[in-house]
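[09:14] KT: can someone run the structure on this one? pasting the chain below
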Amino acid sequence: MTTIEYTHTPSFFGIEFRGHAGFAPAGKDIVCAAVSILASELIFAAEQAQAGGEICDLTHSEGGAFVNLRYFYRDNRSMRQIAKLILASLKMLEAQYGDYIKVRAANFDE
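[09:31] RB: done, structure tokens below
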């Protein structure tokens, strides 16, 4: 199962992805593939937003079945909307494949 915990406040975004979905064998798991694409897009967007000065204090780590991303907003531009879109997409996956993915709000230390 993939578990996703996130915190989204007016100044902070943090998200942690853990585990493999287990929907199908490795290489054929559409749930894991969808989550991986969304996590990769979020990291790419955050790196671009940091380069543009929209966010600060970006940290992320990746490895196997783990991704952790945290940053603080400097202003209210596109990155806030991207984070909302990614969260909405993850929640739609959970609605369809709830036995393989769980998405929940959590409290990260800011």
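[09:33] KT: thanks! The CA atoms of residues 30 and 72 lie 31 Å apart.
[09:34] RB: yep, looked fine to me
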